[in-house]
Write a structure and sequence with these properties.
- The complex is a heterodimer.
- Chain A is an alpha+beta fold.
- Chain A has 4 domains: 271 residues, no CATH class; 177 residues, tricorn interacting facor f3 domain (Immunoglobulin-like); 87 residues, Zincin-like; 139 residues, Neutral Protease, domain 2, CATH 1.10.390.
- In chain A, helix 7 packs across helix 8.
- By secondary structure, chain B is α/β, with parallel strands linked by helices.
- Chain B has 3 domains: 139 residues, P-loop containing nucleotide triphosphate hydrolases (Rossmann fold); 64 residues, no CATH class; 67 residues, no CATH class.
- The relative contact order of chain B is 0.14.
- At the A-B interface, helix 1 and helix 5 of A face strand 6 and helix 3 of B.
């Protein structure tokens, strides 16, 4: 009762303090920075939710946390500096009073954050329009901003209670802020305190992973800051003692350090056992690093899989039933691979439980499971469940397999414990009724087999052969058809986006690209019988795009508002979208590769990037294309030329894995996407211009004898030497 | 309420010894004047009594138990006005007293606050923000928070500093009235305050108790050691201490205290201030 009484009067006092109102008003103003210059959530994708909800909320998070941390230091220091403590400390326990003082600051901060959420609501509703997402709005303000501001208050209070010096506490807090904003932790969602990691926001495909990781990291920081604060309570100076004696005396209230250490333990446990990112190395390893049996001692005739994703929790539960014939007369240990986030719940062979080993040897997206299979015909049933994890190498972008109410994305090892020697597979997938699944492989059939009474529908996937189900995307898709003289296409985009797409006549943009490529290089092999399929995938699954036979998959960041209206005056272009369509010619129609690709960067990406530039030049003008393509390539090539590790690659091995992977990835990317296009551009000039180059490329594309097209083939067709194309 | 100070020593971490083994029982009802020169250890003793400090040696008992083990009981029964204190400027007088009443856990706080404001003549400033109060008014707010809830132990360190003479008289009466059923410990430099209301005086000097008794006993101890000299001595005389210079029709007269009065001095009846000066001078001479 007395504590509540202290809390009442302390809170009342805080609300009468001018300095609190100053902090509160500035906190209310902080989200404006998210409209003007602080854009952490839209660096990769300018979505409406990112622009109008996440950026302002993150700016508010940063500003509010700094302001309330400073307010906390001011309030705690003030009672000693202005000697209020000489009155209060004699009539009430300093522990109780400090606790109520900090708690009242937490309440005041909560009021300020709620006011900010209410204040910006009308404007956000107006700006987001049909894309308004109330759940995300609540998450941004109450799930990200409020806990961060709270942790700032607790950390500030803890530091002050330890040091009893306001300037030292401020310095330590500043160091923590700088560390949180440094590049060392930029891709680690758990270590970012004041600037939660929100690498993207999706308007059409949900934001479950960002919400989950955001809430998880906030809980972690709240635990850590609360534990530090609890640990600092015994350090409150008493009886005229210094830090050491006060702390020792305070620790006689054993529940304080005990609770603090329990919370620290919980936080540490949360850090180690976070369920979102796997523990793979950051550099992508070749598939052979997780070898399957090269000479299988058994045959797997078929596998039938039942998958039931839980879209609310982002988890999946599944059962895979394998028909196996073990050729040996003894037990065989066979290896399966599956997503690192799944766990095997049970394995039975012919109804009997059999042993298995989860190797937990995360590599790329998967880990290995070893199952001991008895001899003869075996019906092997594996029950598994869990939350699919993001590959460690993509931890900064948080993209990968996802189950959410708006979008599902599954790759090879995400469906079930995968084995590469399965003869035939069939998969039943139960999804919310609004989600329509589309496979990236055109020859994998996806059929609706039942409409269930619980608001779900069950789909069946059946590949023509094997147990490989490709990549599957499920969303509330609609199909937009595009016809050109030589080729037709169907574009799957979210229903919510249909009006925007039609308004900008996306079909015409697609038709322009298809016609350009058909006219300049010829039609791809599938054009006579089938349609080119374009699938818009959610940014939760990936950024950018890729292409497989007859299908180009592009992330939603390829289609944001400014892209639709690209012109010479705007700063964005539909490069990725065009790029991925062009891949149907360069990459799928004709592959570009040679033995020296690792060193010379020669791949389909170079010629695809060059062709993209040509289309952009034709559509938006030379000046625009130069600025957004050629100049960008040149600056990247210059950067590479000056890069120490590019010139002295032997030093790369001395770097920690994380940085070495980053440098290698960057070098490879620049070689493929900037250096090779520059060389092709140089070749274009040397062979006599664009028309001549188009003829050469058409010749390469239509030459049936060339697949893949090597760099030497290209040089021969141009009549040039490697040296002639060296860049200055 | 009984408090017993037993051989209490207090040495600060910088080595300064503030109290040197003092002992004194404090029992209610009593109004005790704690006097002594600057640095005598008065404030240190008061901080020890309110458990703001812990003694280096010795102990303070509340009843039969160490004070530290009965800290909660002490806090519940304590009214304390430190020599130097701060107030929350953003609050009104009433809000501040309401804040303090909540900290003290006073039931029926509204009536208690009204009473404390009336007794300290602050009722008219009830809704005035503390930041706008004068120094004297702030001191009265300090006293009001100390007497709030009628605590059984009232410790006041220089409470009348900054008050005008009329207010000082009012507060003397207030403290005197309050002491009828509690312990009031009053630290002051103003002997007049002590003389008029205290039934017991403790004189502290350099961390030791020089005197502990009634004002009458103190005066009696100085009997025959206070005198008047009609003329100002030409040179500084050894053996006596001038406590006052008085302008009279005959010129400047000096009031002196001495272990043995000089022949030119005419013995007079000592006042409490004379007695205090005699005691301090005697101690300093040692």
């Amino acid at each position: 009762m007395s504590f509540l009484s202290y809390l009442r009067v302390e809170t009342g006092r805080i609300f009468r303090s001018r300095i609190f109102w100053l902090a509160a008003v500035l906190t209310l103003c902080a989200p404006i920075a998210g409209y003007l210059f602080y854009f952490p959530a839209t660096l990769n994708h300018e979505s409406s939710i990112g622009l109008w909800i996440a950026n302002p909320a993150l700016a508010g998070t940063f500003g509010g946390t700094v302001l309330f941390a400073l307010l906390t230091l001011y309030e705690l220091d003030r009672v000693y500096r202005k000697e209020m403590a000489s009155l209060t400390d004699t009539i009430v326990s300093t522990l109780m009073l400090s606790s109520s003082r900090t708690l009242s600051l937490l309440l005041a901060a909560a009021a300020a954050v709620v006011c900010a959420a209410v204040l910006y609501l009308p404007y956000t509703l107006y700006r987001t329009g049909a894309l308004w997402d109330g759940g995300y709005y609540l998450f941004a303000y109450l799930g990200l901003m409020l806990p961060t501001v709270w942790s700032g208050i607790l950390l500030a209070a803890a530091l002050y209670q330890f040091t009893r010096r306001v300037e030292l506490s401020a310095v330590l807090l500043t160091a923590l802020v700088l560390l949180s904003m440094s590049q060392y932790v930029s891709d680690q969602f758990l270590l970012r305190w004041i600037n939660p990691l929100v690498p993207w926001c999706s308007d059409y495909f949900g934001n479950l992973r960002v919400i989950q990781t955001g809430l998880y990291s906030r809980l972690l920081w709240l635990l850590l800051s609360a534990s530090l604060w609890l640990l600092s309570l015994p350090a409150i100076r008493k009886y005229g003692y210094g830090l050491g004696r006060s702390f020792l005396k305070g620790c006689r209230k054993i529940y304080l350090p005990f609770t603090a250490f329990v919370l620290i333990g919980c936080g540490f446990g949360m850090y180690l056992c976070q369920p979102f990112i796997n523990h793979s190395q950051m550099e992508y390893a070749s598939f052979s690093s997780h070898p399957m049996s090269t000479e299988p001692k058994l045959t797997i005739d078929e596998v039938e899989i039942t998958c039931k994703p839980n879209v609310m929790t982002g988890t999946q539960q599944g059962t895979a039933t394998y028909k196996i014939f073990n050729l040996e007369k003894e037990d065989v240990v066979e290896t399966f691979i599956m997503n690192c986030g799944y766990t095997i719940d049970k394995v039975t062979a012919n109804g009997e439980t059999i042993p298995y080993t989860d190797l937990n040897n995360d590599l790329n997206f998967e880990k290995q499971i070893e199952v001991t299979i008895p001899p003869g015909y075996v019906t092997l049933v594996m029950e598994y469940s869990g939350m699919p994890q993001v590959w460690n190498g993509l931890r900064g972008s948080l993209t990968g397999t996802v189950f959410s109410p708006e979008f599902i994305s599954l790759e090879m090892c995400d469906f079930y414990p995968y084995h590469s020697f399965i003869e035939h597979g069939k998969l039943e997938l139960t999804l919310p009724e609004k989600l329509i699944p589309i496979s990236n492989w055109v020859d994998i059939e996806v059929n609706l087999i039942s409409e269930n009474t619980d608001g779900t529908r069950t789909w069946e996937l059946e590949p023509p052969r094997g147990g490989y189900f490709g990549n599957l995307y499920a969303a509330e898709y609609i199909a937009l058809e595009t016809e050109t003289e030589n080729i037709s296409a169907v574009f799957y985009c979210p229903k919510k986006q249909q009006a925007a797409m039609e308004e900008v006549n996306i079909q015409q943009i697609l038709a322009d690209v298809l016609e350009y490529c058909s006219a300049h290089y010829g039609t791809p092999p599938f054009a006579e019988e089938g349609k080119l399929r374009l699938i818009e995938a959610g940014i939760p699954a990936m950024m950018g795009g890729y292409a497989v036979d007859q299908t180009s998959i592009m992330s939603e960041n390829t289609f944001y508002e400014k892209i639709y209206t690209a012109s010479a005056e705007t700063a964005n272009s539909p490069e990725i979208m065009i790029h991925e369509i062009v891949h149907q010619w360069w990459g799928l129609g004709k592959n570009l590769y040679d033995d020296n690709t690792a060193s010379n960067g020669w791949s389909s990406e170079g010629l695809t990037t060059y062709t993209t530039y040509r289309i952009i030049k034709e559509k938006y003008g030379e000046e625009y294309a130069k600025e957004h393509c050629v100049d960008v390539w040149q600056s990247q090539a210059d950067y590479l030329k000056n890069n120490f590790y590019f010139r002295y690659p032997e030093y790369l091995d001395r770097l920690p894995e994380q940085y070495a992977a980053r440098v290698r990835g960057s070098v490879d990317s620049i070689m493929m996407y900037s250096v090779v296009p520059l060389k092709i551009l140089k070749a274009e000039k040397l062979v006599g211009g664009e028309e001549k180059m188009d003829e050469i490329l058409k010749g390469l594309f239509t030459n049936q004898n060339l697949n893949p097209i090597t760099y030497a083939d290209f040089l021969d067709a141009c009549g040039l030497t490697e040296e002639a194309l060296e860049l200055d | 309420m009984n408090i017993s100070i037993q051989n209490v020593e207090m040495t600060y971490s910088n080595g300064k010894q503030a109290l040197q083994g003092i002992s004194a029982p404090l029992q209610s009802p009593s109004l005790i004047g704690l006097v002594g020169p600057n640095g005598a250890g008065k404030s240190t003793l008061m901080k020890l009594l309110v458990a703001g400090l812990l003694p280096t040696k010795g102990e303070i008992l509340l009843g039969d138990s160490p004070l530290i083990s009965k800290e909660k009981e002490l806090k519940e029964n304590l009214g304390y006005l430190p020599q130097s204190f701060g107030l929350y400027d953003e609050l009104t007088v009433y809000q501040f007293l309401d804040y303090m009443a909540a900290l003290k856990g006073i039931p029926q706080s509204r009536a208690a606050i009204e009473k404390a404001m009336a007794e300290t003549n602050l009722s008219q400033y009830k809704r005035t923000r503390i930041r706008t109060l004068s120094g004297g008014q702030r001191q009265r707010v300090g006293i009001a928070q100390a007497i709030l809830g009628n605590p059984k132990l009232l410790i006041l360190d220089e409470p009348t500093v900054g008050l005008d003479p009329e207010e000082r008289i009012n507060f003397r009466n207030l403290f005197s009235k309050a002491a009828q059923d509690k312990i009031v410990l009053l630290s002051t430099h103003i002997i007049e305050d002590v003389q008029s209301i205290c039934n017991r005086i403790i004189i502290l000097h350099c961390g030791i108790i020089l005197f502990d008794g009634s004002p009458q006993e103190l005066i009696l101890a100085a009997q025959g050691h206070v005198g008047m000299i009609d003329q100002m001595p030409a040179e500084k005389e050894e053996g006596y201490h001038i406590t006052a210079r008085l302008n009279t029709l005959k010129g400047v007269c000096c009031r002196i205290v001495a272990e043995e009065l000089p022949p030119i001095a005419q013995a007079v009846d000592p006042t409490l201030e004379d007695a205090y000066m005699y005691l301090i001078a005697k101690e300093e001479k040692k």
